[in-house]
Design goal:
Blueprint lengths: L1 H48 L10 H15 L23 H13 L4 H25 L2 H13 L1 H6 L6 H16 L7 H17 L4 H16 L5 H28 L9 H8 L11 E2 L3 E2 L6 H12 L5 H18 L1 H16 L10 H6 L2 H5 L4 H21 L6 H28 L6 H27 L3 H18 L12 H12 L3 H14 L4 H13 L3 H14 L4 H13 L3 H14 L11
Antiparallel strand pairs: 1-2
Helix pairs in contact: 1-4, 1-5, 2-3, 4-5, 4-7, 4-19, 5-19, 7-8, 7-19, 8-10, 9-10, 9-18, 11-13, 17-19, 17-20, 18-19, 19-20, 21-22, 22-23, 23-24, 24-25, 25-26
Length: 609
């Protein structure tokens, strides 16, 4: 009898092992398919992007990164046509140095290829999806891991940024790796893993200084873990973390001090960025016009802005002094306009959490309209946010109701999952608070969307458990709440919609920068077919007509540009010259006066005095 019972037990054990192996293989196949389809979307977008004009002529901040990286890699510090020397070597860093130095390394290894960094960023995108899987599966469950990987792999804005020369695609895997290492504190705090987390945190700060919010999240979490019984989280966890992060950032701080004599931890433009988000013209979005000083489209223009500020103050200002001055202006505006500041904060909150991918230099939503791979990518911000909110809500409700399984091992696993969920939620919240005083942009929130995808995985795991346990009431209630949350997350704000023809205009402007005037002209005309009132298109077409000697059409388009943007100084300037050429001296003088009224320091305006 015992022998027969033993054989049955062994046979059941073998069946369970075979079932586990089959399940493990199925999970690996599912993960491979998720990563492969994500990689296919990325390759398709990269192939499509290679044919666009801005692939090898990046503009704005991407152009600044390109210029900086090539200067480091090859000593090629010749500024782009029409741009002023940003004085990178003589002044504190104006932008975080992490990405330009990585880009320089790639350029050096590839001989300056524009394709190589995109391939690297594509691979990092796939790595990010894998890290989301590891984090989700390890602490929430297999379904959570697969869903987290799918959301990170198929989210179209991640694919878009992997084609841009920005730090986003590098920062996302760094943040996921940091959270993964911090999560090990729930299993036992080990100093060497905390040192690794500190290295990643320092790297994140060099890619995006607001990542210092993750140090605050780790500190609060360590205190909370101590109350939960993890007694060494502060000494063996937080202290090595902070030391390692400081060691990574310290060379940048020392370098900034060596070139300027000022204490600038990472970048010298914190003040101007705060003022851009808090001034009489602030809208919560990126606004290139700085009240009374000029424009600030990218760091090529910062030296001129600094000169204008020094002239206004009456004495030369260092970069650190200028940052402090802008910060005082911003804080003074906040103090004297509490009502408008509160409304602006609410607007930025709506924009940050809204479904629209906010433009900065380029409009991602418009790029998606013209891209087949991006349109086919099925995941949107609204979907991730709705699932993440459902995940947090279901976790809180389940914990309050005490629905944890009575088995001791599973109770420990559930508790670790809850602790990691708290860490991820606090990281997302503190990052948002760090960004909120400035302005909203898709590339500032993207790293946190990767963490939202992990929370969304928890929601999928919870729904699966209700299905497997045949708890139909909870399952139906969860699905209904998820649908309601998706409806809320999908509420858009039309006032921030960019012109649908803008992405075509950007292509045309890139061609213009490359000297391909005829191709630029055709693209500007195509953009006007899409958006007849696109004032920048009218302005550039008007200028092309003037250069071709067709003053009548040039004047017509410049007037159309000013109907759309009455305070656009370059259009007033060009129209003034054109009207002077055709003998309309009185109207020419009015437009010349407008140039000087709008921008007294307009570079070509002095010729009109």
């Amino acid at each position: 009898m015992r022998s027969r019972r033993g054989r049955k037990t062994r046979e059941k054990s073998r069946q369970l092992q075979r079932s586990a192996r089959c399940t493990g293989r199925a999970v690996l196949v599912a993960l491979a398919l998720i990563l492969a389809t994500g990689a296919a979307l990325r390759v398709a977008y990269l192939d499509e992007h290679r044919d666009l004009p801005d692939f090898d002529t990046p503009l704005s901040d991407a152009g600044f990164h390109d210029y900086w990286a090539r200067g480091i890699a090859f000593g090629a510090w010749e500024t782009p046509h029409g741009q002023r020397d940003p004085l990178i070597r003589e002044t504190p860093y104006q932008r975080p140095p992490g990405y330009p130095y990585l880009l320089a390394l790639v350029y050096r290894a590839s001989g300056g290829s524009y394709l190589a960094p995109r391939i690297l960023q594509l691979c990092l995108g796939v790595l990010s999806a894998f890290l989301a899987y590891v984090l989700g599966r390890r602490y929430f469950g297999t379904i959570a891991g697969l869903v987290s990987a799918a959301l990170a792999s198929w989210y179209w804005i991640f694919i878009y940024f992997e084609g841009e020369l920005h730090a986003v695609s590098v920062l996302i895997p760094v943040v996921l790796g940091l959270i993964l290492l911090l999560s090990t504190w729930t299993e036992g705090v080990r100093a060497r893993l905390s040192l690794g987390a500190g290295l990643l945190l320092g790297s994140a700060v060099l890619l995006r200084p607001t990542a210092v919010a993750l140090l605050a999240a780790a500190a609060l979490w360590a205190l909370w873990l101590r109350r939960s019984g993890v007694r060494r989280a502060l000494t063996r966890g937080l202290l090595p973390l902070a030391i390692a992060a400081a060691v990574v950032v310290l060379p940048t701080t020392l370098r900034n001090y060596a070139v300027s004599g000022d204490f600038v931890p990472v970048v010298s433009t914190a003040g101007i960025n705060l003022y851009m988000g808090n001034n009489p013209n602030a809208t919560g979005l990126v606004e290139v016009r700085i009240p009374d000083l000029g424009t600030y489209r990218d760091c090529f223009e910062y030296p001129a802005l600094l000169d204008a500020l020094s002239e206004e103050v009456g004495s030369p200002l260092s970069h650190a002094e200028a940052s402090s001055h802008f910060m005082r202006r911003a804080l003074e505006y906040i103090r004297t306009h509490p009502g408008r500041t509160a409304r602006l904060l609410w607007k930025k909150t709506r924009l940050y959490w809204g479904p629209h991918e906010i433009a900065h230099n380029r409009a991602p939503e418009n790029v998606r309209l013209g891209s087949t791979p991006l349109r086919r990518a099925p995941v949107t911000h609204a979907l991730i946010l709705a699932l993440a909110m459902l995940g947090v809500l279901s976790a809180v409700v389940s914990r309050r109701l005490g629905r944890d399984t009575p088995l001791e091992q599973r109770r420990r696993d559930a508790n670790r999952g809850w602790q990691v969920l708290v860490l991820v939620s606090w990281s997302i919240g503190l990052w948002f608070l760090a960004v909120l005083p400035f302005f909203v942009s898709a590339r500032y929130r993207a790293p946190m969307v990767a963490l939202l995808a992990v929370l969304a995985g928890w929601a999928a795991q919870w729904l699966w458990r209700q299905w497997a346990s045949r708890k139909w009431t909870l399952l139906v209630a969860g699905i209904a709440v998820g649908i309601a949350l998706y409806a809320v997350a999908s509420v858009d704000y039309p006032e921030i919609r960019t012109d649908p023809g803008h992405h075509v205009f950007v292509e045309g402007y890139t061609c213009l920068m490359q000297g391909r005037v005829d191709e630029a002209f055709d693209l500007f005309q195509e953009a006007l077919d899409i958006s007849p009132h696109h004032w920048r298109c009218h302005s550039e077409i008007g200028l092309i007509y003037l250069r071709r000697g067709d003053f009548d059409r040039g004047i017509e388009h410049l007037r159309a540009a000013l109907r759309g943007k009455p305070d656009y100084a370059p259009a007033h300037f060009n129209l003034s010259l054109a009207l002077r050429h055709v003998g309309e001296f009185e109207e020419s003088l009015r437009h010349a006066e407008e140039v000087l009224r709008i921008n007294p320091d307009f570079p070509r305006g002095r010729r009109l005095r």
